[in-house]
Each structure stands twice: as structure tokens, then as C-alpha cells.
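User: Hello, can you help with two protein structures?

Assistant: Certainly.
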Amino acid sequence: MVMNAINFARSFGLNYAHTPFTQIRHAEQPMEEWVSAWEKLFNLGAGEAVYDVGRRDAVNFSYNFTNLDLCFGWRCRGDQLADHFKTIIPEFRHKYYLNAAARTSDDLSVAVHVRRGDVSAADPGYFTSNQTILRTVTAVKSILDTHKVNYRISAYSQGKSADFEHLSEAGVELFLDADAVWTMQKLIEADILIMAKGCFSYYTGLISDGIKIFEPELLLGDDFLPSWKWRSVPPTQSWIPSRSDGSFDGVAFERQLLTIIRAKATAARQRHQLAASDQKPCTS
């Protein structure tokens, strides 16, 4: 919602005033520490004016975005706002990496987000079966093996190891009930992200600069905010939609994979060259 507020302000020539988080659900720490951790992770207030609680001339976008349609007619410009949101994603990514180090591993990382805990098979709008996820993972592994690259696949979820036995048997390392902030960092910074359905996974996809495999969602009713539109239509070509059975366009995936492999090889050579130059003896 903060990202939508920033996009709205930029689109209509308004000043955005950032309000630091004060309460976030599913707290794993005392609330003050919990919201501080998320504020630092997202860093959405970097470079923005800070909201002064004494002011009366600021509108709370979260509570009033539907009413703002009366003033700006923004829903008639939904496609335009969605396109503008797409253009400022690099800005949100830059804010995130102000507090995070870029990945440097030579191996390729695959992160699988499996949504459990608050959903079950009775919630098809948010639940994806293990069989569907396994099909996606198996297809990714097959392509990676074809290119003979070193990789690591990790799954992040909630529950017991026995709940994900088939993923473990496929060589997927499980991280269950781990710290949510750490989990989001791992999802964002993976080279390949296999997403779940929901805003937690969706945010990681927006910030990630890797390959994203996602399940398109059918948006209904008031769920039409500019950024949410892209849960149905990917914002860049790095988003690869999966089918209901977990399959996806392997050709499109492989095309992006080759780009990542080349970039990793170049980065590795540069690091090795730098390390070699640092080890040269000094001469006089």
C-alpha cells in the first residue's frame, strides 16, 4: 500500500510524506522491534519527506484511496497508473538495496515460496499443492542440469518436514517457520524465485531482479490498485507465468537463464581478477 501511495503521488504531482510502520500483523518480536525491522528492510522512506503528525493537510492513502477517485478519477486511468508503477519498480529496488548487499555467490540460487500456515487446500485462491510445486521445481532442475550449472534449491514455508517429503526427496532444502524478515530477504535475492500466491510473495517478486515464476491471479472487486494489476499481468518479461499444473514456458525461462549464467560468469571473473591484483607483491 505504501508503494501504491508513492506511485499515486508521483503520478498526480503530489508530495508523498512517509509514515514509518507502527503495526504489522504476525509479529514475531515485540511490536516496536517488529515494525522497525520491516521499515529497515523495505526502506521505502529513504529520500522521502517524513510525515509530521501535527499536520492536517495530508491524506492517508491507505484509508482513502477509493475516495480519491472522486477527486482524481484515478480508476479511469488505471492502465496508465499501472504502467507508471512499472517504471518506478527500479526505485523501490534501489531503496531495498540501500540496506542490503548484492549477492556474490558463483552458484545459482533457487528459492521456492510455499504458502502454508494461514491457507489450506480449502483456499484455492491462495493455496498451491505440493504436486504442482514439485512439477515446477522438477522442470527448473531439468533445465539447470542441462546447462551443467551449480545450483541450490531452497523452499521456505511453515509446517513440518513430513509435509514436504516429496520436495526433500527432489533435493530441495527446507527452511520452515524461519524468521519472516530473513525469509523475505532470501526470496528477493534468489537468482530464480518460484512464487506463492499472496502479497508476501508478490512484494519479493517486485523487488527481485531474478527470474520469477508466478501463478497469475484473478483480481476481483476492489482489488484493483495499480500495482496489484500486475499480479495478473507481469510487469516485465522476467516474470514467467505458470499453468495450473505447475508447468511453464521452458524456452522463455531458458532464455533468461542464459543471461544470468553469463552475468554470473562475468562477475566471478571480475572478483577473481580483483583478488589476484590485491595479492600482487609491492615493488619499489
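That covers the first. Now for the second protein you mentioned:
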Amino acid sequence: MEKKLLKVTEELDILLKFKTIKTKLLFYFSTIVTAILVSFSIAFYYYFNKTITESIKTTLFNTAYEIEEKIESKQPINLEKYNLNIAIFKNNKLIAKNSDINFHINTPFFIKDYGEYLDAGIMLKFKIPFEGEIIVIKKHIDDKSEDIVDTMLVLEPILLFLLIFLASKTIDKILIPIKNITKISKEISINNFQNTIPQNEEYELKELIDSFNKMIQRLQSEVESLDRFNTNISHELKTPITIIKGEIAIALKKLRSPKYYQTTLISISQETDNIQKITDNLLLLTKYTKSNIDETFENCDLDSILLEVIEKYKTILKEKNINIEFKKFQNIKYRCNSQLIYHLFSNLIDNGIKYSPSNSTIHISLYKNKNIYFIIQDEGIGIDKNEIPKITEEFYQVNKSKKGFGLGLSIVKYAVELHNGKLKITSSHKGTIITITL
């Protein structure tokens, strides 16, 4: 257990050391650069050493063949002119040399590394016409590869630190927009959504900034929606709560007849229903926003939803002897939020019934022609032109005598906007036409 705890602690320490993006980038950069420099140094050393060895080997072989050619052509040979140790054997007998070094070697080529210098030698055997052996040795060759290693050991750390320094400065420059995002984000609060981040030319940062600004807009929309809900619910619940409290206070002042209590409870029940309806409608106005509405969309049959709504009002339609006439009716499939569409149809039909006189007709059309159209027309008294811009405001009522809360058309407007549609209201003394385009 202690070992595991120690391991976790060590891992946390490592994470804390590299907790900033800059530190991580510099760590990864220095690791990669170090690996590249080391790999390059090893490869360079290997090929440079190989080149020197091949050069020495070529010089020794050329010297041996030159001497052998002179022996074949019976030319005089001056071994002293060669800055090499040379020995010539014929029939295993030494016939010439220019050094007192023991020349007995048994390999065609050898090289010995003594650190700062090298010894290299060859032994070539010839058969025709010269039958013998020529040994050529070069001693105390300056080992250039060791100088290269020493140079690299000095220059590479300097180069590495220089590259890390330049990388650090470059990262600081790259991170400036991110620091600006951090600064602005600290200024944003539930009471301050005014600041947005200026756009940047870099694609990745542009995308990040765009996403951040959209997030600010979504948060602002959500907060405004919540504020609106709080304001509306506190305003609209005052009346029913006041009525309930008044009814209870009067009932408790003295003993009443059972009928009085029954009447009081009916009144309280009605006001409780009103509270429920107001709360449900306000929640519907705040439940969905542009940022989350797409997640609730599903394939729906608009005609089926409309028929379901009309069926709900069947009894009221019969009581007022109002007829529903379909001018144009099609089967339409549409990807939408079924709950909002249901309330949209319901509120428009409810208004149509409420403001239509008895023994009248409500005309409805539902069809598709590039766009989807839902049109409802009643035969009521109509709406004054000055009132039309206001009727979609929350809690606004044209006719105060009609029972309602003034939220129906607000829900309709909101539902249409969330589905990227259009709402058009036209009215005259012969009735009102409401056109929804989706």
C-alpha cells in the first residue's frame, strides 16, 4: 500500500511540474530535439569514421599495388620516399623494408584505435609474376573522429539551450491570444456578458474564440431566460396566491356553513389550477433554447398532432357550435420538438375558439409547398392594428374580459423562432388570420 501511495505521489509530482502548456511544450520539444541531435551525432560519427577508415585503407592498398607494379617491371624501389612502414617478403623471406618494426601480421587489413591516434595496416599476397607479400603500415594517424566528438559535446548542449530559448520566446508569442481569452473570461460573470474576445487570424485560435463567444451568447440567453422566468412567475403568481390567502383568511374568521366551505375550496382549487397552468407555461418558455432545442428534435407527423389537438377541443367546439373547416390538409412529416408543436397548435386553436362567436367557422390549412404552412382563420371581431405588435408579448391581453393568462401567443412565437420559422398575423373586423411558415 505504501509503495502504491508513493508511486501515485511521484506521478502527481511529475504532473505538477508540467502543469502549464508552455512547460509541456518545452519539455516535449527539448526531448525531441535532444533525440534528433543524439541520433544525428551517432550517425555522423559512424559515417565519418567509416569514411576515414576507407580513405586510409585505399591509401595503403594503392601503395602496395604501386610497389608490386614496380617489382613486376623491375624498376628500382625507394621505400624511404613513402611516409609509411613497408616490408616486402618473397617466399616467406624478408627482402626489403624501411623500418625496424615487426611486420608479422596475419590479416588483410587491420586498424587499431588508441584514442587520440590510430594504427592501420594491410598485408597483400601476390602470386604471378611476383610471388610474395607486401605489408604496408601507417602509424600514429591523427584520429579526426575524436576531435569531432569533442566538438559535438561542446556545441550540441549550446545549440540545444539556444533552441529551447527560441522555442520559449515563440511559445510566449503564440500564447498571447490564449492569455487574452483568460483575461476576458475572468471578467465575465452572471451580471456581465458584454465582453467578447476579438477574433484572431490563426485558424485554430479563431475556431476556439468563435466557440467561446458562442458559449457566452448561450450563457447570456440562458441567464436572460431564467431572469425572465423569475420575474414573470413572481409577478403572475401574486394574484392567485393573494386570492387563496384571502379566501382562507375569511373562512377562518368564524364558523361557516358547509356550503360556504365548499364554495371556498372550489375557488382555492381553481386558483391552484391557475398557478399550475401559469407555471407550466412559463417553464415551457424557459425549458428550450437555441442551444438545446436540436437535441429534442424527432420525426413527427404534423397532421396527426393537429388532429389530436382538435380532438381535445371537441367538447368546447360543440358547446359553441363552432365548425372546423380544412381548406387544405396534407400528411406532412417534419423533424421538430413535438411538445412545442403541440402547444403551438393548441394555443392557436384555443384562441380561435375563444375569440370566435357561436355558430361560426374556423378555417385551417396545413400543407407543404417548398416550406410548410399552417394557417388558421377565425370569424371573430379581429384585432386593432396597433395591438398586433403587442399580442405576442408575455402576459399581454387584448380583451381582458376573456379568461386567460396572456401566454398563448408568446409560446407560439417562441416555438416558431426555435424552429427557425416565421409568424405572421393579419386582422380585420371580419376576423384574424395567423400564418406559420416552417
